[in-house]
Amino acid sequence: MYDPGDKTDLDAGNHETASGETYDANGWSAAIQIDLRGRFGGVRYGRNYQPTFALVEANDKRLIVRINDVGPLKPGRIIDLNVRAMRYFDPTMQAGLIADVKVTPLLGADYALGPVTGFEPVTVASRDLDIAAP
Description:
By secondary structure, the chain is mainly β. Helices cover 5% and strands 34% of the residues.
C-alpha cells in the first residue's frame, strides 16, 4: 500500500508500471506481489497487457482496482494500492499499512473501477455470498 513516509513510494507520474502504463496516483490501480502475478493474468507488458482486476476488501469497505504493476513489495504485503485507492481505505493516510486485507482476482475485462457499494454478506448453507441489497 502507498506509504507517505516512504520516499521510494511514487505518488507522481513519470514511472512506468509493469504493464507499460504510466503510474497514475489518481486512478484506481494497484501492484500485486510478484509471486501472485500468474493469478492476476500475468500482468504482461505493452500491447501484450490485458487488463486484470481485483476486489480489495478491508475495514468493511470494498474497492475494484486494475492490476497494472507487479513487484517484490515490502515483507507481508500482497498488494500495493496507488494513492487514491489507499485514501479510500485510509482517508488520513496515517495508517501506512492496512491489516486484514482480502484480495480476490476478478475474471473478465469489463469492471467499473472504484468503491463497491450496495452489497451485504449473507450466510446461506454455511457459505458467505454477496448479494446486492434491494
